[in-house]
């Protein structure tokens, strides 16, 4: 019996214009082999063997997602009694968590990942903290719900950086977890078993990674954080931090220090780390965090939806800080919308325009896209961009879209992010396979049908 390896998959894509590392180029041919970019040629005309498109850009990493929260998108927009805030939203989220089983989780995550790919996200950092059964009891397989996430990634084709979440406490000072958090909680020993099981679970995916995610300073102690860093090794480490003013106040009351300040004093924060939100930092924290080389994981649509506040982007970027973008609660999944609102929030506060652009004659869209691409790749542990050796993850834009037609290359991303958005996304390739064509994922109909069955049962 022959055990010869299957023949290599080879094909070529030609773009009239493509965004390569550092600049736009004309007449670009990508040679793909087994899902990887084998070669990049520029200033070459198309051949009959090429699949031809007009505009090519790299696919974007999504640094922060809670896939299961896609099930409650738009269902927490009725004002309750008294003040409505992140903390009241959280109680609604806990009620949804109570109803989700492994089958429903897979259906929900698959829809979220379809929508991510349709807008140009190609790898997701899944900050996964739903671990136990609805009663809070561990499953026989610690990775029972991780398998649902992995299956959704396999079905849709999105790349996965899986981030199992360690969640041990309900507040600063080791307060006990509350009833709504019963499906999240681990101690270090049980979490180590989960991490081992998750690493095994993702081996069915071609380029998946497993990082680690201390949920927040509310949920871990200093000693637990030290143990988690040892478990992570060189893998990505993600943590929620300084998302809410109350969180900052509680941290000050507990430790005398602000959250980012406390973390930098108590953990070896470096380029492996992604600090999600980091919204409420003072000037000293901004400078100190930028100096670590860590990524600030920003989720402007969710941060606006929850009334979190506004990240100090100009100061952080001006200090050399690195950023990535994520869809977080998945209330609206749209890569361009995240970047647009990152800039628009700054404009509303500063009452100015083109706030994040670093100087005269610099494109705001290009600045945002380049920063999020580089920071996202770093945060998720996988290179991104149209370069030899990288995974063949890229997007074609519709050059006939009114907001892109006849644009010079230097303003394409401005037209995409600020004027067209997802309506200009034509095709999306993941590992060289075209997962989105004409703006629609190839499995959309089947995924939506299964999601509708799952959400109907949850709502009922």
UniProtKB/TrEMBL annotation:
Amidohydrolase-related domain sequence ranges: 57-432
Gene Ontology MF, one: formimidoylglutamate deiminase activity
Residue ranges occupied by any Formimidoylglutamate deiminase N-terminal domain in the UniProt entry: 11-54
Signal peptide residue numbers: none
Enzyme class: hydrolase
GO cellular component, one term: cytosol
Key word Transferase present: no
InterPro entries in the cross-refs: Amidohydro-rel, HutF, HutF-like_N, Metal-dep_hydrolase_composite, Metal_Hydrolase, Metallo-dep_hydrolases
Keywords: Hydrolase, Metal-binding, Zinc
Coiled-coil ranges from the UniProt annotation: none
EC number: 3.5.3.13
Reported cofactor(s): Zn(2+)
NCBIfam families: hutF, PRK09229.1-2, PRK09229.1-4, PRK09229.1-5
Name listed for the protein in its UniProt record: Formimidoylglutamate deiminase
Annotated source species: Pelagerythrobacter aerophilus
């Amino acid at each position: 019996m022959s055990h010869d390896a299957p023949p290599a998959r080879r094909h070529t894509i030609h773009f009239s214009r493509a965004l390569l590392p550092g600049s736009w180029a004309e007449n670009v041919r990508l040679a793909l082999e087994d899902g990887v970019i084998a070669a990049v040629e520029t200033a070459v005309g198309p051949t009959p063997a090429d699949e031809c498109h007009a505009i090519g850009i790299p696919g974007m990493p999504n640094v922060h997602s809670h896939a299961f929260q896609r099930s409650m998108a738009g269902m927490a927009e009725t004002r309750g009694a008294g003040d409505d805030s992140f903390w009241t939203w959280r109680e609604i989220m806990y009620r949804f968590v109570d109803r989700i089983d492994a089958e429903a989780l897979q259906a929900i995550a698959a829809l979220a990942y379809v929508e991510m790919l349709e807008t140009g996200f190609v790898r997701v950092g899944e900050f996964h903290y739903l671990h136990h059964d609805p009663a809070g009891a561990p499953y026989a397989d610690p990775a029972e719900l991780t398998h649902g996430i992995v299956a959704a990634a396999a079905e849709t084709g999105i790349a996965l950086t899986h981030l199992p979440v360690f969640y041990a406490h309900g507040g600063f000072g080791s307060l006990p977890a509350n009833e709504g958090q019963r499906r999240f909680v681990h101690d270090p020993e049980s979490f180590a078993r989960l991490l081992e099981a998750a690493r095994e679970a993702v081996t069915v995916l071609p380029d998946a990674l497993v990082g680690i995610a201390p949920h927040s300073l509310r949920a871990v102690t200093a000693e637990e954080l030290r143990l988690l860093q040892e478990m992570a090794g060189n893998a990505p480490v993600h943590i929620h931090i300084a998302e809410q003013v109350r969180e900052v106040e509680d941290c000050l009351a507990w430790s005398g220090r602000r959250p980012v300040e406390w973390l930098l004093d108590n953990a070896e924060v470096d380029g492996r780390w992604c600090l999600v939100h980091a919204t409420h930092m003072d000037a000293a924290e901004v400078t100190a965090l930028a100096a670590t080389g860590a990524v600030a994981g920003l989720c402007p649509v969710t941060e606006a939806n929850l009334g979190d506040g506004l990240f100090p982007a100009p100061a952080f970027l001006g200090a050399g800080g690195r950023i990535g973008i994520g869809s977080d609660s998945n209330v609206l999944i749209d890569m361009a919308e995240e970047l647009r609102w990152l800039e628009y929030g700054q404009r509303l506060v500063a009452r100015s325009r083109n706030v994040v652009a670093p100087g005269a004659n610099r494109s705001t869209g290009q600045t945002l896209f380049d920063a999020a691409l580089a920071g996202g790749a770093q945060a998720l542990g996988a290179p991104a961009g149209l370069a030899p050796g990288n995974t063949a993850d890229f997007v074609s834009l519709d050059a006939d879209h009114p907001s892109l037609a006849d644009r010079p290359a230097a303003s394409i991303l401005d037209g995409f992010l600020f004027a067209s958005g997802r309506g200009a996304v034509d095709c999306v390739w993941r590992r060289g396979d075209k997962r989105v064509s004409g703006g629609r994922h190839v499995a959309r109909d089947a995924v939506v049908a299964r999601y509708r069955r799952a959400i109907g049962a949850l709502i009922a």
